[in-house]
Amino acid sequence: MAPRRPEGAGAFPHPVESLAPVRPDPSALYAALDLGTNSCRMLIAQPKGSQFQVVDSFSKSVQLGAGLEKSGRLGNASMGRTISALKICQQKLKRHNVGHMRLVATEACRRARNSRDFIRQVQRETGLRLEVIEPEEEARLAVVSCAPLVSQRTEQLLVVDIGGGSTELVWIDLSNVPNRDRPKSIMQLHAGFEAYNGAFPSAQVVDWISVPLGVATLRDHFNDVEDDAARYALMSWYFEEHLADFAPYKTEQARAGFQIVGTSGTVTTVAASHLGLRRYDRTKVDGLRMSSAEIEAVINRYLELGPSGRRRDPRIGQDRQTLIMSGAAILQALLRCWPTDRLSVADRGLREGLLYAQMSAHGVLEDGTL
Q1: Which of 1, 190, 208, 244 is the Cys-Cys partner for 170 at CB 3.0 to 4.6 Å?
Q2: What is the pLDDT of residue 31?
Q3: Secondary structure class of 134 (helix, strand, coil)
Q4: Do 68 and 197 belong to one domain?
Q5: What are 29-53's pLDDT values in tens digits?
């Protein structure tokens, strides 16, 4: 399947991870639910100055897209697992009496022939109304969530969101934006990728692309390859072939002033492995900058471990061992294509972008600096 692409471009709240100490006013609570191809994840938060404070959260691997590549449909078992997870989300939303929410679904529901039936079943059994969003909105919300990690020295930015069913890449030119305004200019993209006419020069989206290959769908393409290393190499080159029409891929880019920000479970897992964390710690991972050599060393270690070793690794685990190598293959392809030896790790993404967009629209965030 060819990648989809369009015809046509405030301060971000750093999430405060500690639970709210007192029961908040429900009218001040916001929820963001991201139902992807592999995971169901939700945050409930309240505004706090120019930031937001997390009140409750949920994350569960549901494998909604299992078998989708072959059948083109969501399977009964996958839908059953997902609805069970969504019932937990519904209970949390009801318990906190959340006043504002956006509950979105992405690639699996965009592609499945029976997604409308599934959405209706979800509403019937849980009372939740899922909204299937388009790739452009998914891409720009990921960009918005990563704005705090953008260096003021960055002139060319690539934001990569590796999902379960698709991977979004957004190329942004910041060279005409004053250094101090570069993160803020990225925030203006939350309303769309069109040109922005504001108080300072805008970030310009050079190009963006949604590749219909994520960690689950890429893995499924090569399930029949038994050799672990061969499967990894094939996945990496196959993903790179899907970048051929992405504009920045075609011309050589300068190394100076270039930054890649990666947001996904793959990127954060690689970072946790690099740090040797026994227990995942977001404060150590989010914002970490890894060199390409450090990333390659982690990936080589994964290959040495093999499937059984990765399954026993506490940083990977049974749920992710089949997905981490397809994600690593995507990551290696990206680092092979672009002129940088560093990647900024973002433990943030669609949920944080959804929260920001809601709070910004309601004017409940104070002005502040990133």
Answers
A1: 208
A2: 97
A3: coil
A4: no
A5: 999 999 999 999 999 999 887 678 9
Q: Which domain holds residue 257?
A: 137-346
What's the rounded Cα separation, in Å, for the pair 142 and 149? 12
The pLDDT of residue 26 is above 70: no
Distance in angstroms (rounded) separating the CA atoms of residues 356 and 368: 14
Centroid of chain to Cα 132:
16
With the CA atoms of 369, 352, 260 and 265 taken in that order, what torsion angle do they form, in degrees rounded to the nearest 10? Answer: 140
The three state secondary structure string of 286-339 is CCCEEEHHHHHHHHHHHHHHHHHHHHHCCCCHHHHHHHHHHHHHHHHHHHHHCC
Tell me the two tokens of residue 214: 């994520």
Please identify, among 134, 151, 180, the residue that sits at the C-terminal boundary of a domain. Answer: 134
DSSP state of 28: G
pLDDT score for 238: 96
Q: Rounded distance, CA 27 to CA 24, Å?
A: 8
Query: pTM score, two decimals?
Result: 0.82
Does the pLDDT at position 14 exceed 50? no
